[in-house]
Amino acid sequence: MNSVTLTPERNGFRYGLFTAGGMILYFLLASLLHLTDRVEFSFLNGVVLAIGICMAISHYKHVRHDRMPYLHGFGTGIITSIVASVAFGLFFVIYTVLNPTIMDQLRARDLFGFDLSVTIAFLAILLQSVMSGVIISLVAMQYFKSPDHKPLEGIE
String of b and e for 86-108 (b: at least 16 CB within 10 Å)? Predict the structure, then answer.
């Protein structure tokens, strides 16, 4: 795609689907290795999310010939995280229908004493992924921002 037809939304959606695919593959691998009951391994999905967001911002910057507005890159990262989290959350709902024992494993590790439903798990996935994605995008943009981006220059 050239820089005229590629928008932050289109780029974020595309890389969000790629990122969701990576998160799904990691979850299936963890499920096959019976690691889904260990909460600490679920945070590796954040690493997959960070890689996807950085790839999306990097691709957008490359297509724009290294002249990317700051908010375009930041928006690309946020949209990538939203699409990835919704797609992964929907996959998780479908997976719990096919393998209901996964919810029993997660319920056994529930530290707050309430019954964890699929809906609450879906919302938790969305909340964790989107909030992490916003923070990752903000940090990544400090690296990917254009060299001529100097917002405080001339304010004196």
Answer: bbbbebbeebbeeeeebbeebee
